[in-house]
Amino acid sequence: MNRYLWAVFLMAAVTLLTRAAPFIFFSHKKVPSYLLFLQQYMPPIVMALLVINSFRTIDWTLFPHGLPALAGALLTAILHLWKRQVLLSIGGGTLVYMLLIRLL
């Protein structure tokens, strides 16, 4: 068989195992408290790290002083609080950011 086909089969098997692992390991047991903790707090922590990382390389002393990034982040937050639609929030913020970096 072609080696690429084997690679696809291997990736499919690994993907299937990673998706099935929680059901295999925790179907008959109580979920450990540290996993419940991670489930609750990991998404906001990851989002905060992404925001911090996106703003860390901005040179605030040069024009446009981070305006495109701030406007994109602000619109993303407003859209998300208003509509609670993730794709709309991300798409709207990205669109405003991309337009502003081209226009300013």
Architecture overview:
- It is a single chain.
- The chain has 2 domains: 1-30; 40-103, no CATH class.
- The protein is mostly helical and 104 residues long.
- It is built from 4 helices and no strands.
- 79% of the residues lie in helices and 0% in strands.
- The relative contact order is 0.07.
- The mean pLDDT is 93.
- Helix 3 (67-83) packs antiparallel against helix 4.
SSE string: HHHH
Distance between the termini: 54 Å
How large is the share of residues in beta strands? under 5%
Mean pLDDT: 93
Number of domains: 2
Write the layout of secondary structure elements.
Layout: H1 3-26, H2 33-55, H3 67-83, H4 86-103
Helix pairs in contact: 3-4
Short description:
The protein has 104 residues and is mainly alpha-helical. The chain has helices spanning 3-26, 33-55, 67-83, 86-103. It folds into two domains: 1-30; 40-103, no CATH class.
What labels describe this entry?
104 residues; extended
